[in-house]
Amino acid sequence: MSIGETTDLYSRRESEARSYCRAFPVSFTQARNATLTDAAGRDYTDFLAGCSSLNYGHNDADMKAALIDHISRDGVTHGLDMHTDAKEAFLDAFERLILAPRGMSHKVMFTGPTGTNAVEAAMKLARKTTGRETIIAFTNGFHGMTMGALAATGNAGKRGGAGMALQGVARMPYEGAMEGVDSLAMIRAMLENPSSGIDAPAAFLIEPVQGEGGLNAASAEFLQGLQALAREHGILVIMDDIQAGIGRTGPFFSFEGMGIEPDLIPLAKSLSGMGLPMAALLIRPDLDVWKPAEHNGTFRGNNHAFVTARVALEKFWADDAFQKQTEAKAAFLSERLSRIAKTVPGAKLKGRGMMQGIDVGSGDLAADICATCFKHGLIIETSGAHDEVVKVLAPLTIPQEQFATGLDILENAVQTSLGSQQIAAE
Question: Model pTM?
Answer without folding.
Answer: 0.96
